[in-house]
Every structure is written in C-alpha cells, then in structure tokens.
C-alpha cells in the first residue's frame, strides 16, 4: 500500500529515512516529497545574542531550522572556537528546552544538553517550562516567521519572560508541482498523505486536489501533530490520523490504524 509523506528525506545512522523504515515495517511503501525550502533571516542580530548568554535564562528550540541558524551564525562569524571554549558551557549552565527528539539530536550535536524533548509539541513544552522556570532573565526563542502563538502566550500568561527572534522563513519548494505530478503519474493515488506543517499544507494542497480529482475522497489524510491537524480541518479536510508524538514510530502506528479496513 502506497503512502505519501510531504517532507524532506533525512537519512539516519542506518542510511535510510526513519519514516520510510518505520512505515516499511507495517508493509507500507512510503515516498517522500519535500514541499518546503527555507531562507535564514536576522543572523547578525541572532549571533550577537548568542554571544551574550549572561543576558538570558536559557534557550527554546521548537524546530531543527532554528538550530541550523545557530550553526550558520557560528560558521559565518568564525565563532566555532569561542563556542567550544566558553559559550557552549555558559549556555549549558542554563536550561535548553526543545520540542521533539529530532530537534534535540541536532541541539546535542552543537554540544548543548536538552530537556523537554519528550513533550512532543509546543503546548506540552510550554506546560513543562511553566512547571520548572523561575529565572528573571528572558528565555531566547529563535523561531520561524510563522511561529505559533500557543507557546509564547502560555509563557506570557505565567509571567515567564521570553525574547523571540525570527531567524528563518518557509518558502515553497521549487519542485513541488513537478515532483507531485511525477508521483501521481507513476504511482497513482496514494492511500494516505501525511502533512508535516501548516505551511507544507498551504503550498501543496492545490496541486494535490488537482491531481487527485474526485479520488481525493478515498485518501486518508494524516498530520504530524495537532497544529497541522487543525490546519487540515480549517481547509475542510477530514483528519484520519494525528501522530501521538512527532516521531516515525508514532506516525507509522497512526497510519496503520487509519488504513485498517474495519476502522472504528
């Protein structure tokens, strides 16, 4: 059974995308098509803030792109050595909060210890931060241009100071239409399509509707998390599955349940 995932392919230590592997264990033939590209913003300003950990109570990362922005700042400003010698340890003396294990693994690669990765989404992470945070200094939150407001609002309501800086924005992947057309002509209508962000949905839905025609009603739509599920519902699409956590295993289990012939 063929399933389509609208995300970038990313190989793990085994040399295979973990989503393809997990879905394969259930007998699904998964294909990945990227729908988003990214451009980075405000890196000089962000780099300056990273150089002054004493001004902040900690860091919040809710996406791998925000961590990539840190890496770019270190490379562009030749700060890799000073990061290793002093800045890294100064930030590690503070809390570094993250959403999801994928983001946590990239944060770990730049030498930072993380907490909160098992929360799974921004709302649960906000609850976790609120239960632990007592610093009078603001948490530094590098984020995308279309960041959700749930986490900032929850922290504000609890009086926890936070300083956000937009370090990237999502743009449509240039190959969306061509890649989707090739997939449909070669593979046909997929049994399921998974969306990984509201932006990815926005950029790809029109093409999927055109290519699927009336057959769109037979596709089971899945979301990687509650924010994306809400976006699907807002577009009038039935959500057959929302992954319990943003992980390959949880998504594969959810899609398997959604595609069982006698679903309750």
Could you say what the CATH topology of the largest domain is called?
A: Rossmann fold
**Spans where pLDDT lies below 50 across 5 or more residues:** none
Based on helices, strands and strand pairing, what is the structural class?
Answer: alpha/beta
Radius of gyration: 20 Å
Q: At CATH's second level, what is the architecture of the largest domain? A: 3-Layer(aba) Sandwich
Tally of extended strands? 10
What pattern of helices and strands is seen along the backbone?
EHEEHEHHEHHEHEHEHEHEH
Rounded mean pLDDT is: 93
Please describe the topology of this protein.
Blueprint: E1 2-6, H1 18-25, E2 29-32, E3 36-40, H2 43-50, E4 58-61, H3 64-76, H4 80-92, E5 95-98, H5 101-109, H6 122-132, E6 139-144, H7 150-157, E7 162-172, H8 176-187, E8 192-195, H9 198-212, E9 220-223, H10 226-234, E10 239-242, H11 248-259
Helix pairs in contact: 1-11, 2-3, 6-7, 8-9
InterPro entries: 4pyrrol_syn_uPrphyn_synt_sf, 4pyrrol_synth_uPrphyn_synth, UROS/Hem4
Protein name: Uroporphyrinogen-III synthase isoform X1
Pfam family, one: HEM4
Task: Give an overview of the whole structure.
There is one protein chain. The protein is an alpha/beta fold and 264 residues long. It has 2 domains: 2-35 and 174-259, 3-Layer(aba) Sandwich (Rossmann fold); 38-171, Rossmann fold. The chain contains 11 helices and 10 strands. The strands form 2 sheets. Strands 2-1-8-9-10 form a 5-stranded parallel sheet, with helices on both faces. A 5-stranded mixed sheet has the order 3-7-6-4-5. Helix 1 (18-25) runs parallel beside helix 11, helix 6 runs parallel beside helix 7 (150-157) and helix 8 packs across helix 9. The two termini are 20 Å apart. 37% of the residues are buried. The mean pLDDT is 93. This is Uroporphyrinogen-III synthase isoform X1. Residues 19-252 form the Tetrapyrrole biosynthesis uroporphyrinogen III synthase domain.
